[in-house]
Fold this sequence. Notes:
Elements: H1 3-22, H2 27-35, H3 45-52, H4 56-69, H5 76-94, E1 100-101, E2 114-121, E3 125-133, E4 144-152, H6 155-158, H7 163-179, E5 191-197, E6 201-205, E7 208-211, H8 229-239, E8 244-251, H9 252-263, E9 267-273, E10 277-284, H10 298-303, E11 306-310, H11 325-332, H12 343-346, H13 348-366, H14 385-393, H15 400-409, H16 419-461, H17 468-480, E12 483-489, H18 491-495, H19 499-513, E13 524-529, H20 533-545
Parallel strand pairs: 2-5, 5-8, 9-12, 12-13
Antiparallel strand pairs: 1-11, 2-3, 3-4, 6-7, 9-10, 10-11
Helix pairs in contact: 1-2, 1-3, 4-13, 4-16, 5-16, 7-8, 9-20, 11-13, 13-14, 13-16, 14-15, 14-16, 16-17, 16-19
Amino acid sequence: MPLVSAMMSLREALLAAVRSLLRGKSFLKALLAFWTASPVTPINSQDAGAKVNADPAADFLAEAEHLLLGFIEAGGLKRFSRKLKRQFKERLWSNTECMLPSYNSQLPTGRESGQYLALDVGGSTLRVALVELGGKGAEGAEGSIIRMDTFKIDSHVRNLRGARFFDWMAERIQQTVAKDSTRGHVPDVPLLMGLAWSFPIEQTSSKGGKLSVMGKGFLAHEGLVGQDLGDIIKSACQKQGLHVELSAIVNDSSAALLSEAYVTPSTRFSLVLGTGVNIAVHLPVNTIDQPKFGDRPSSWHEKASHVIVNTELGMFGHDILPLTKWDKLLKADHPRPDFQPLEQLVSGYYLGEICRLALLDAIASTGIFGGNVPPSLRTPYSLDTETLSLIEADTSPSLSDALQAFAARHPIPSYRPTTADMSFLRTLASHVTRRSASVVAASLHALWELKAEAERAMLASLPDPSGAFALETEAEIALASSKTTVAFNGSVIEQYPGYRARLQAFVDGLLAEDDGDGDLKKGSIALVEARESSLRGAAVALACLS
Ligand code: BGC
């Protein structure tokens, strides 16, 4: 080998070795690959890379898998769940932004019935509906939606600041109500509505709460933080000549729990996983610091042994999350990087973006997609989680549907992605979503353990072992050690191919690891779909009040 060429090759090999090192491979291994290359084969700089790193795309995927999922190995997921549990416990006592007790202390009996107007403000849609609750045993007892209007919330609406967002909302409510011949709105009589709100809210009564900072890219809170959400909506509606009264306001996670508990009495948790993420859990009241309850009438406290808590799960995870270089890039560009750190790893708003950042990295370093970045993917948040779900849905060897879906959304001038490119992206997406499922599973498991422990502590603290609170708590303990139902809702968990099965497998794995931890181990956790849970839950919340 001529000296100059050998020096060039060595330089390339060293560079490749450093690159491999950055990806967590052994520097020595990469160098060894260079020295064991045949000395008689002429090595130009390209060949050197190829010899050292025969399949850079496969190496990249192996590294991505390690970075995204390595933390779960050797009991890592269980350790992570324990750390989360510690954070949940701390914030039941010390934080005003999350672990928020609702006003719902009683779960529905299932006998509530009637027609209710429900409003659902979600991450990507506003929906106004008339919901009929049939009551136990009635046909369609879980509640049927008699009429519903859906309005898309696009980025323009997301960017409406303060009152302008609520004016937009009120116009839509007005449009719907004006059409509603079944109710015939009489201006003097307020129209009673239940609201499911997919953002944090510090509840001050069953029908009111302080507007808090919103995630998911919304700006509606600007200038209004701390004001009463019910009043804000009411006065926006008044401008439209509409006399409404928000009689029940619940976070969408509480709505999901209420809607499923209405038909499945063993429901004690809900999981919402769509644009955002959240879990609500039914906890003993003494698990929560008194100031968190705010100024409630003593009659509320006298009746409440338990309460539905909106955990605001997305806000957890500071300092314990398994962050990759792509998560750090996402954070660096985020307007509120520390607001909802866990949400950034798991929810539909972010999964596409994590994948986009990893894909750009891969295109630059491995040459997949012929080294071409689709121009549309240079824009942040341009790779939708929905696109990933279409790609993962294609299990054919040719991946032709996935290729078509990708090309339609992200064309590349003068390059046609190959099956190998699509297979690469598909595997990358599956690592990103598996990590999401593992983190959500650890969160559920941590809260399940926390509840079971809290019930025992509650029982031990009650002075009268035969009183009503003790009986309720004993029933909760019995339930935790048999079967707990988790009501789920949201586009990712409902529609992303294989997500739910991955989540259930991680949850089951964590429960199986509990063997030997005492009688917590006996329980099982069943994920049950709560369809249209926001609208139904808002109606159930309203029905519970009446
Ligand atoms: C919000 C929660 C909501 C969740 C699911 C999060 O971004 O902060 O309040 O429950 O998304 O919609």
